[in-house]
Amino acid sequence: MPLFEYKCEKCENKFETLVLSSDEEISCPGCGSKNIEKLFSSFGFKPKNSIPISTSPISSTISGCGCTPVSCGCSSKN
After folding, report:
1. Residue 8 CB neighbours (<10 A)
2. Using CB atoms within 10 A of its CB, is residue 2 exposed (0-12), middle (13-18) or buried (19+)?
3. What pLDDT score was predicted for residue 27?
4. What is the SS3 assignment for 72?
5. CB neighbour class for 28 (10 Å; exposed up to 12, middle 13-18, buried from 19)
6. How many CB atoms lie within 10 A of CB 1?
7. Are residues 31 and 7 in the same domain?
8. Residue 77: which of 49, 60, 58, 66 has the closest Cα?
9. Of 70, 15, 23, 75, the residue nearest 3 (C-alpha)
10. Residue 46 lies in a domain
11. Is 24 domain-assigned?
């Protein structure tokens, strides 16, 4: 049961809806028009060998410390 994003061609309303079957007819919740366009939505994924967020230099802070792991190494002090 995927969640899809659509845009109404009539009123330009963007909305998401849960699609239960491929033959389900979707209409705009704003104006009721059936003239809609399916949008390509971005999605998140985690690469197999990625660095966990809690130890990533990109992470803004470590819980309870207030600094990044790169600046003071708090992750090794806990």
Report:
1. 21
2. exposed
3. 92
4. helix
5. buried
6. 6
7. yes
8. 66
9. 15
10. no
11. yes
With tokens 């197999």, the residue in question is 48
pTM comes to: 0.50
- The residues that bridge with 3 in the sheet, in sequence order, are 18
Residues with Cβ within 8 Å of 20's Cβ and at least 6 positions away in sequence, in order, are 1
Tell me which residues of the chain have a pLDDT lower than 50: 59, 61-62, 76-78
Tokens of 50: 């990625």
- Residue 67 domain boundaries: 52-78
**Residue at 10: amino acid letter:** K
DSSP 7-47: EETTT--EEEEE---TTPPP--TTT--S-EEE---------
CB atoms within 10 A of CB 69: 18
